[in-house]
Known about the structure:
Blueprint: E1 5-13, E2 21-26, E3 29-34, E4 46-50, E5 53-58, H1 60-72
Antiparallel strand pairs: 1-2, 1-4, 2-3, 4-5
Amino acid sequence: xxxxxxxxxxxxxxxxxxxxxxxxxxxxxxxxxxxxxxxxxxxxxxxxxxxxxxxxxxxxxxxxxxxxxxxxxxxxxxxxxxxxxxxxxxxxxxxx
Length: 96
């Protein structure tokens, strides 16, 4: 089965829409992917990546839900998932 996995754009490389790429973080694993199909993608956005190409942008909640589905399918065994936006682990806690 072929999957598209969401990742967060952490760096954009280049300005040419046909050659533009990004470094995308998948729970800490960073890969370089093509942004040719997603010219609207910007730093901090989540993108769905399939075979090294970002095929669409998604909101953070949709990215978290996709990670959860992949986890339930056993496709992410051994990968630590990012916390869902707004979950207690993403909120800052005062130091003791």
